[in-house]
């Protein structure tokens, strides 16, 4: 049957080449496409002299056409490389990527997510970059920190990917927006800082306004099912010492969030809120859109949110035809303290995207050169020209000049492959300033916490973990089933005494396999 | 019905049934229209009204910026062009293949009929999965071309069966007389069977057009470049990528344009061409005329 | 595949076949384009079904097809993984119940709609009504969810209205008692008009002289519908019903994925959503193919069976 299939494929190939309908998106792989880029193979000796090839790029999905966006021109002018940008679909991206790569796609460079990178690396589909970086990528090598490189290395110790790290590790990404005008109406003038204050505020609001408002709505999760987002805001779990799905306890043992000693207490707290009618009854149904709508329409008093959320809701709430609020009427609740003083919020020391090169790609040295040039021009490409797009503040931070900054540099994030990480961490907050609606909560929650209570930020022990087989295979499904279970607990369709049953199922679903793997890595990495 | 029923007066039962029909269908239509109004209204309402959920069945603070944003600042129009080409070409090809397949299979005396029908039934039910199908398309060298988007719906089994069913119901007598006159099978199909089948052919053509129009999965799998993006891929990316969309709106200073407004506008704009097709199809849906005239 | 061939070919029938071929060779030529497509795009890829019996890794060979050959056989391991899981019976039951409801409540409505639309003689009214009910088909489920959440959400338009009358709010989207109803209703809203179109086309094929004859016999409208329209629609009804029944394991995935949440898993989790969650983030082609094959086999059996029943009871067959 296999032969038959192969035979038919050959026949088809012949037919189609006769029919001349071959726009050759790519040939089937045993004989790699001959119609490659002209400046390839032959001139290995001085690969970067002469004409620069057009690079074929595959990136993550974005809501604009990166080929026609003004940023593309800017990049071309600076680097001298023409790039043909392609994007993965918003859905089924993994399948599409695997299918293309395994059947011999001819991209020069890919920018993909960490799990996708780990899959390709595990399958041996990627080119080692260590030597290329040494020759053409000095700035990249120096700009990226040691730990980030570790996460990009294969088992042979060679580098296989160029990381783009999340620029601001100590950001409180998940916070709550609270209507101060209504909170004050209930006799509370301060934004809650502890879990108890938060609970008391909810009760006071309920006593004052009854059923007129949804007291507290959430969670803030993307509508698409596969996305990983927490069903209990992380600034609440912080009060219970739960900051990540995988953690390490005081004895050095790797535990899952459901195994944390405070997990039952956390669920008890959420169940109490539900039972007393303090949170949205549609907690399990909500997504970012419905939460934003409830907050901005004035139906809800407190809502979970993030920077993108306030970008949507704040302009509406402050509008003359909206709720007519002022920025003073909006408060932001950061990471909450537990009654025993616990407050743990995880540093997002994560790598957002990885740039890598397929084994079969022909212009690898040009790709590295191209990324290196981009990083050399980090300030110009991401922030523009001093005086035109931004000014330096007295404290040395960058202050963007809007709207020209937003118009001419707003989309640069999609084109970023690597950064001088330390420098970019300083430069980046100014990008949040492109909008007041984003800046207000960032200042009130993140900057404040960094100044006053930096001790609340804890490290993710697994931040720089390399590709682990069981982890990449099972973790997403494990997280989803846990998330479902948590929602069932909150809604009251499951009781907390079912935890041991859940835990057993979870272990059989791959939980134990992942834990063993993580424990082993943890012991080795931290030399225990 | 076009011809009025002469001579016989409408009985009470007929009247009752007709009145019930008017009322029930009116209610059905209303049920369908109100949510549609909701979406249309959103696409013409101010960002604040949309985000705050104030829009119900009528636009609030009417504006046209959302529409103009979608038309000018997104890849909606190029995507529309691709989809129109694929739909037009594809429907044409599919109709030819469907008619030429359905006709022989509709003849009770056609030798080998059962075998062929069984082939169609089997291939309708069993599915080899997306990997081998992708490899076929790749081997044909048509990845990232219009041909790759037409191939999957070359013939849709259900549509073929609908046409075959209809052909079977046509009176045998007309064909017989033509055959006696020495007409070939092809001639009979083109000049007698097809004209008699206008209502079903128009309907099936529309079914195909809608198939091509709504096709997301194959477009996503078989095209790569942004130039080849179709309407459905564009819609999926818009709906699933709200975060980058928000940033876009802020960057472009489209303060009066909201995400939900954009999604609504995209949905409305992508509906118009395909819905506008329906009245054309309805022209061919007048009962009895064709068959009657051929007979007369 | 060779039903005819198995009937011992006698020389006589071969001869007969030869003359038939000669007379009607055009009919066979006509079939070619369709058959070409069938072999290239449908039968060739059937090779991929073997993935269900292998531990498929897409990178095992030079290309994905080569990888199929090089992946290891595991027999029925994937099917066991599917059927042995504790939740399988529950999700199978949910699939059958939800799709059963959809057939029982939704299947007859387009037929009635088509008949009613046919009775409406005001042409503009008819056209408008027809077009209106057909539009919802074009909304994707994500958009349909958005519309119905703002209507039926716990704090949506309808619940706010009920609350203002002092009636308790109903959480349509998280109440296990009403959630299946919500699924059936929204499916009806989206699909009824679309299915009506097919019946409307079929109604036009009914010979008008039959109505005239019935009228002359003094048959009432109701009797005309019963004795002329319904029998005239029968081939289409049978075709649609057989296919609906055949695909009973296969429908509603996209809708449920968008509408459901973990609080209604007990009543709404179907086979496809369950397998989807099981394989989340794994790109597990083998498990997906195994499920697809299981569904195909069931569909094939049901379609052949339903066709046999219809042949016996109604003397109608789709082949």
Word description of this protein:
The complex is a heterotrimer of chains A (528), B (296) and C (319). Chain A has 528 residues and is of the alpha/beta class. Chain A has a five-stranded mixed β-sheet with strand order 2-1-3-12-4. Chain A has a four-stranded mixed β-sheet with strand order 6-9-5-10, with helices on both faces. A two-stranded antiparallel ribbon of chain A has the order 7-8. In chain A, strand 1, helix 2 and strand 2 form a beta-alpha-beta unit. Chain A has two domains: 199 residues, Periplasmic binding protein-like II (D-Maltodextrin-Binding Protein, domain 2), CATH 3.40.190.10; 262 residues, Periplasmic binding protein-like II (D-Maltodextrin-Binding Protein, domain 2, 3-Layer(aba) Sandwich), CATH 3.40.190.10. Helices cover 44% and strands 11% of the residues of chain A. Chain B folds into two domains: 105 residues, no CATH class; 126 residues, MetI-like fold. Helices cover 72% and strands 0% of the residues of chain B. Chain B is built from 16 helices and no strands. Chain B is flat, with a radius of gyration of 24 Å. Chain C is mostly helical and 319 residues long. Chain C is built from 15 helices and two strands. Chain C has a two-stranded antiparallel sheet. The longest helix of chain C has 33 residues.
């Amino acid at each position: 049957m296999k032969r038959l299939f192969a035979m038919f494929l050959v026949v088809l190939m012949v037919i189609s080449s006769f029919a001349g309908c071959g726009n050759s998106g790519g040939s089937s792989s045993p004989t790699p496409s001959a119609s490659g880029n002209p400046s390839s193979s032959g001139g290995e000796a001085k690969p970067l002299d002469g004409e620069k090839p057009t690079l074929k790029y595959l990136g993550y999905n974005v809501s604009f056409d990166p080929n026609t966006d003004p940023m593309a021109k800017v990049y071309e002018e600076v680097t001298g490389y023409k790039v043909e940008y392609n994007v993965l679909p918003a859905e089924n991206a993994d399948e599409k990527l695997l299918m293309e790569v395994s059947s011999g796609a001819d991209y020069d460079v890919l920018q993909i997510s960490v799990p996708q990178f780990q899959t390709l690396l595990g399958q041996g589909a990627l080119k080692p970059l260590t030597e290329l970086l040494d020759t053409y990528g000095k700035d990249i090598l120096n700009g990226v920190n040691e730990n980030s490189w570790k996460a990009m290395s294969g088992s042979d110790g060679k580098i296989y990917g160029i990381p783009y790290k999340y620029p601001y590790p100590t950001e409180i990404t998940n916070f709550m927006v609270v209507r101060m005008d209504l909170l004050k109406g209930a006799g509370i003038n301060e934004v809650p800082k502890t879990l108890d204050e938060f609970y008391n505020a909810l009760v006071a609001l309920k006593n004052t306004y009854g059923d007129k408002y949804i007291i507290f709505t959430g969670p803030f999760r993307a509508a698409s099912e596969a996305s990983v987002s927490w069903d209990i805001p992380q600034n609440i779990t912080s009060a219970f010492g739960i900051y990540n799905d995988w953690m390490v306890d005081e004895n050095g043992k790797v535990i899952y969030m459901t195994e944390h000693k405070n997990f039952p207490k956390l669920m008890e707290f959420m169940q109490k809120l539900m039972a007393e009618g303090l949170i949205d009854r549609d907690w399990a149904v909500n997504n970012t859109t419905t939460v934003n709508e409830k907050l901005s329409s004035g139906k809800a008093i407190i809502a979970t949110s993030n920077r993108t959320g306030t970008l949507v809701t704040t302009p509406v709430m402050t509008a003359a035809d909206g709720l007519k609020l002022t920025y003073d009427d909006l408060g932001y609740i950061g990471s909450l303290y537990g009654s025993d003083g616990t407050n743990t919020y995880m540093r997002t020391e994560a790598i957002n995207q990885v740039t890598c090169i397929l084994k079969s790609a022909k212009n690898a040295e040009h790709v590295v050169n191209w990324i290196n040039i981009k990083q050399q021009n980090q300030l110009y490409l991401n922030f523009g020209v001093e005086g035109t797009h931004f000014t330096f503040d007295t404290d040395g931070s960058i202050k963007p000049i809007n709207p020209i900054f937003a118009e001419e540099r707003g989309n640069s994030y999609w084109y970023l492959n690597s950064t001088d990480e330390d420098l970019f961490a300083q430069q980046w907050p100014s990008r949040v300033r492109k909008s007041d609606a984003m800046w207000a909560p960032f200042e009130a929650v993140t900057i404040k916490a960094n100044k006053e209570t930096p001790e609340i930020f804890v490290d993710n022990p697994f931040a720089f973990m390399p590709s682990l087989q069981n982890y990449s295979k099972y973790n997403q499904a494990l997280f989803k089933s846990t998330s479902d279970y948590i929602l069932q607990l909150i809604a009251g369709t499951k009781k907390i005494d079912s935890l041991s049953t859940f835990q057993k199922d979870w272990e059989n679903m791959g939980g134990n396999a992942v834990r063993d793997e993580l424990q082993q890595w943890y012991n080795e990495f931290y030399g225990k | 019905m076009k011809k009025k029923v002469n001579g016989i007066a409408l009985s009470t039962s007929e009247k009752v049934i007709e009145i019930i029909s008017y009322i029930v269908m009116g209610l059905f239509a209303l049920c369908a229209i109100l949510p549609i109004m909701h979406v249309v209204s959103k696409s013409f309402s101010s960002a604040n009204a949309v985000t705050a959920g104030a829009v119900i069945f009528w636009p609030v603070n009417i504006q046209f910026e959302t529409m103009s944003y979608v038309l000018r600042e997104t890849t909606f129009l190029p995507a529309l062009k691709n989809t129109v080409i694929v739909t037009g070409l594809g429907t044409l090809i599919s109709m030819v293949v469907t008619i030429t397949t359905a006709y022989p299979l509709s003849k009770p005396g056609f030798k080998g009929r059962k075998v062929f029908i069984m082939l169609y039934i089997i291939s309708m039910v069993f599915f080899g999965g997306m990997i081998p199908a992708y490899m076929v398309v790749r081997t044909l060298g048509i990845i990232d071309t219009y041909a790759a988007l037409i191939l999957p719906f070359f013939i849709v089994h259900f549509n073929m069966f609908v046409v075959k069913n209809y052909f079977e119901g046509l009176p045998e007598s007309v064909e017989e007389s033509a055959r006696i006159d020495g007409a070939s099978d092809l001639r009979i199909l083109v000049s007698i069977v097809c004209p008699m089948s206008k209502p079903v052919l128009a309907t099936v053509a529309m079914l195909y057009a809608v198939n091509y129009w709504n096709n997301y999965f194959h477009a996503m799998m078989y095209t790569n470049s942004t130039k080849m993006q179709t309407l459905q891929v564009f819609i999926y990316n818009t709906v699933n990528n709200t975060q980058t969309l928000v940033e876009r709106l802020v960057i472009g200073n489209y303060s009066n344009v909201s995400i939900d407004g954009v999604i609504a506008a995209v949905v409305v704009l992508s509906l118009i061409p395909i819905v506008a097709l329906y009245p054309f199809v309805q022209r061919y849906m007048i009962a009895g005329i064709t068959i009657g005239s051929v007979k007369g | 595949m060779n039903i005819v061939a198995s009937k011992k070919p006698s020389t006589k029938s071969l001869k007969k076949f030869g003359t038939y071929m000669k007379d009607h060779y055009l009919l066979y030529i006509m079939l070619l384009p369709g058959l070409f497509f069938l072999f290239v795009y449908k039968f060739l890829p059937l090779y991929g079904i073997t993935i269900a019996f292998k531990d498929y890794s897409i990178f095992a060979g030079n290309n994905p097809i080569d990888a199929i050959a090089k992946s290891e056989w595991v027999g029925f391991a994937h099917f066991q993984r599917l059927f042995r899981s504790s939740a399988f019976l529950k999700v199978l039951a949910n699939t059958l119940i939800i799709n059963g409801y959809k057939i029982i409540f939704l299947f007859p409505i387009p037929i009635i709609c088509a008949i009613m639309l046919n009775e409406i003689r005001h042409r503009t009214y008819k056209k408008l009504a027809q077009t209106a009910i057909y539009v919802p088909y074009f909304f994707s489920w994500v958009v349909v969810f958005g519309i119905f959440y703002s209507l039926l959400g716990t704090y949506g338009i309808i619940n706010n209205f009920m609350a203002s009358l002092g009636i308790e709010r109903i959480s349509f989207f998280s109440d296990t008692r009403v959630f299946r109803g919500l699924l059936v209703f929204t499916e009806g809203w989206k699909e009824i008009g679309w299915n009506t179109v097919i019946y409307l086309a079929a109604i036009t094929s009914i010979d008008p002289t039959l109505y005239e004859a019935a009228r002359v016999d003094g048959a009432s409208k109701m009797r005309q519908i019963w004795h002329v329209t319904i029998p005239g629609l029968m081939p289409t009804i049978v075709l649609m019903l057989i296919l609906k029944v055949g695909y009973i394991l296969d429908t509603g995935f996209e809708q449920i994925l968008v509408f459901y949440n973990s609080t209604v898993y007990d009543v709404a989790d179907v086979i496809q959503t369950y397998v989807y969650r099981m394989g989340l983030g794994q790109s597990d082609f083998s498990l997906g193919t195994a499920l697809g094959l299981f569904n195909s086999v069931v569909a094939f059996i049901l379609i052949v069976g339903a066709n046999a029943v219809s042949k016996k009871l109604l003397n109608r067959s789709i082949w």
